[in-house]
Amino acid sequence: MKKQAPIAKKRAKKAAGAATPLPSRPGMRRYKIVLLLVLIGILLGTAAYAYAKRQEIERYFFERRGKIPGVKVEPLPVPDAQRWQILRKDLERWRIFYAEKYRKAGSTTARQAVIMDARNLLEHNLPELMRCWLGTGWDFNGTAKEPGAGKIACGYFVATVMEGAGFHIKRSPLAQQASQNILRTFLPQSDLHLRVGVPYKTYRAEISRGKPGIYIVGLDTHVGFIVVPNENGKDYRFIHSSGAKPWCVVEENADQAKVLQNSNYRVIGNLTASDALITKWLKGEDFPTFR
């Protein structure tokens, strides 16, 4: 009996092995094909997710670019909250000065002269107020009230600059409106120009040939300022809180303005070309939010 025990063990092992046979060659081939398809599916899914989140991924690494050894970083502009406050107070002082001149003006000609002076004042000071915000971070929910004091969304940037310039608005309700409603808060429908599906080259030429002034421009999902200078033939500047790289308030020339270039919908209005708007600003009247 003792001699038969090893034989019994061998038989048991052989029986156990027979219970789980290895896949045949055709079965192994199918197994490899299924495994390959699963791996391809995982890779495609990962690639699709990365593509959908490409801006968030790019922004993540962009914000941490200074921590990567050996990478040279071009510094962003530094927001200037102190200058913002100085410019605001100075502009308000001049608004009061011109408001008094307007009140005392004894003729239409005299009032028009005051409006012209006020227009020149706004066209000089509004861009300087905007530039105080350069480098302030963008966020879809950003509501910063001062340059560099948190992040700011595009609508809040426009509303905050207008409020800082002495326009009597309700900042948060205005900032949360569609771009066309933001424009209608300041200008009548007849003063707006809507262009849909126009090639950027054509649109750029139209703006450059337009009247000098401070414009608000509304895009597909964005809003900002366009500054058209007085010099003939000189390109405009696009100043906005950008939700694209570098994700902050930026000032761009016509070539750099990719957000403006890529938009299919563009609605624009010249704020400082409006005598009615300047008169309301001088008098300190309210600009109710258009809804």
How would you characterize this protein structure?
With 291 residues, the chain is an alpha+beta fold. It has a domain at 81-283: endopeptidase fold (from Nostoc punctiforme), CATH 3.90.1720. Helices cover 51% and strands 11% of the residues. The protein contains eleven helices and six strands. The protein has helices at 5-19, 25-52, 54-63, 81-104, 108-131, 154-164, 171-175, 179-186, 200-209, 258-262, 275-283; strands at 192-196, 213-218, 223-228, 237-241, 249-253, 265-270. It has a six-stranded antiparallel β-sheet with strand order 1-6-2-3-4-5, sandwiched between helices. α4 runs antiparallel to α5 (108-131) and α5 (108-131) packs across α11 (275-283). The radius of gyration is 32 Å and the shape is elongated.
H-E string: HHHHHHHHEHEEEEHEH
Could you estimate the helical fraction of the residues in percent?
40-55%
Largest sheet: 6 strands, antiparallel
CATH fold category name of the domain at 81-283: endopeptidase fold (from Nostoc punctiforme)
Outline:
The chain is of the alpha+beta class and 291 residues long.
What would the keywords be for this entry?
alpha+beta; 6 strands; 291 residues; 6-stranded antiparallel beta sheet; endopeptidase fold (from Nostoc punctiforme)
List the helices and strands and how they pair.
Elements: H1 5-19, H2 25-52, H3 54-63, H4 81-104, H5 108-131, H6 154-164, H7 171-175, H8 179-186, E1 192-196, H9 200-209, E2 213-218, E3 223-228, E4 237-241, E5 249-253, H10 258-262, E6 265-270, H11 275-283
Antiparallel strand pairs: 1-6, 2-3, 2-6, 3-4, 4-5
